[in-house]
Amino acid sequence: MPSLIEQLNETVAFIRSKYPSASETGIVLGSGLGNFLNEIEVRVSIAYQDIPHFPVSTVTGHDGCLVFGELNGTRIVVMAGRFHYYEGYSPQDVVYPVRVMKMLGVKNLFLSNAAGGVNTSFKVGDLMIIKDHISMAVINPLIGKNEETIGPRFPDMSEPYSRDLIAKAKKAAQKLGISVVEGVYFGVTGPTFETHAEYRMIKLLGADAVGMSTVQENIVAVHMGMNVLAISVITDMGIRDDDSVITHEEVLQAAGEAEPKLTAIFKELVGKL
Length: 273
Ligand code: HPA
Known about the structure:
Bound molecules: hypoxanthine
Radius of gyration: 18 Å
Distance between the termini: 39 Å
Strand content: 15-25%
Oligomer: single chain
Strand order of the largest sheet: 5-8-7-6-9
CATH topology: Rossmann fold
Number of domains: 1
Low-confidence stretches: none
Mean pLDDT: 93
CATH architecture: 3-Layer(aba) Sandwich
Shape: globular
Number of strands: 9
């Protein structure tokens, strides 16, 4: 079995044979946020299943691709579809494409996701800039042998989300007249949504929103020295008085409705880096 570095080198060589240019900014699109692709001048799109060492889909009909293109004069690479731990991928599989992005030249990584609100001042459709996260309920993807050439054994996590990018994102939102909130994201494995008691616990532990992605990707990005910006779309309220249930359909719908705001912020920001 080839080492991680050997695998990454093979993946990058394959991608370079299809698209030789380096990409400066990487973007991971969360559930229901795929329309962003319409904003890009697409140069090359490669299906995950064709990329050596990319995780192999366990779910039929799962069709993600890595899209290379330009936005606002900047070369970007977009993951249209991400890998989730709840799908059965290992934590190392979930984060593999983020490592590839770094090796393709990405310095700034934008992550997006759908999340449940536990801050009771939030409402469905809000955009939350993630200022920090709580990762203890997910498996750390750096567990195992550390690849010293990639990053340190014990990475510092005092600035998981770049203060500079957060300030720029807030400025971009203000310029566009889009209101944003800021908060702490609590990572969970899913696939169940949380029980009432769990949402209450997550709030009590200091988080503002909860979701099933992003944290593992953030950890490897920080490990490799990338600057990360992450924005959640609040798609449902975990802390609620009524007896409503949360469905995947409602999450996708709320994400789709908020998507133009998120896209506008990312688009504005990409031109400013
Ligand atoms: N909990 C966990 N993940 C989520 C939620 C939620 O309420 N909404 C969207 N993703």
